[in-house]
């Protein structure tokens, strides 16, 4: 099936941008969600894509070359993704990262012999059986668990959580950089753990050794890496708080406190002073419409955290939303420091770890940005 695209989309595809939006389609074909089509411009072949008439992103490129999309195609792509990750310093890492591995809508995280997968596009969902078969053969997986993602709704798919093969551990101990973390593979956020912050945890952990404040702590990774004389974790999720407790025990962290509370309310009341504060919230702005509210929320967090940060102390900021960029964080930090009557020095620019590739032709693949700052009067 051939789908004609407009000039604007053609120019983007020439730069290997992998998405075609609904308003860029010249002729809308009658097809089922996830059908494979050839994208053409003025009768010239441009790319092969999954097509979904239900989605705002109508076409997602799976190849910029004319080739058969079959079992052998997926096997080669998956083998390439595995090879790229041969030297990750952990027993747990992202094996396949959707468009960044030229497999749009496929996420695979490896936890030892367990695989946790998500199929977020109708096209990839159509090949679920074949992909599971390939993963079993290539990785000798003990079990494969499918984690539902609400983005499936936009693709006209049901959100499902299910075991696709074998037996998957309910609990698993991640080992990275001489640290250990308990994670629940079938519960919690993402596919069990924030694997994308592995490198950043190590970097941030080298700063601050007296009192650490870990906001939106999730499983406690940043605070545990810091290994300070005293650490305070703030997290609203009961499940995550239980995880923090167990992870502190696993890593022999002695002097700590876990506060189960909304971070915004916590900052209204907190008076203690810290030498390292980490702000790593969930995505406030999942799209451009939510951006203004996210900016206000970020401003509140930074201004009130600076009040609790000692002179010479370190502040780490992380945004996991493509709508809040590194420049936004810098602008927010500057305006907040003016209110605090202090100066902020940039120590490190940070991004997601290499098992979550940032591909230049796919701007959205840089979704996690961070900055480590030092405050001085």
TrEMBL record:
The keyword Cytoplasm applies. SUPFAM superfamilies: PUA domain-like, S-adenosyl-L-methionine-dependent methyltransferases. It comes from the Bacteria. SMART domains: PUA. Keywords: Cytoplasm, Methyltransferase, RNA-binding, rRNA processing, S-adenosyl-L-methionine, Transferase. Gene3D superfamilies: PUA domain, RNA methyltransferase domain (HRMD) like, Vaccinia Virus protein VP39. Residues 1-83 form the PUA domain. It is found in: Cytoplasm. One of its GO terms (biological process) is methylation. The keyword Methyltransferase applies. This is Class I SAM-dependent rRNA methyltransferase. It comes from Caminibacter mediatlanticus TB-2. The lineage of its organism: Bacteria, Pseudomonadati, Campylobacterota, Epsilonproteobacteria, Nautiliales.
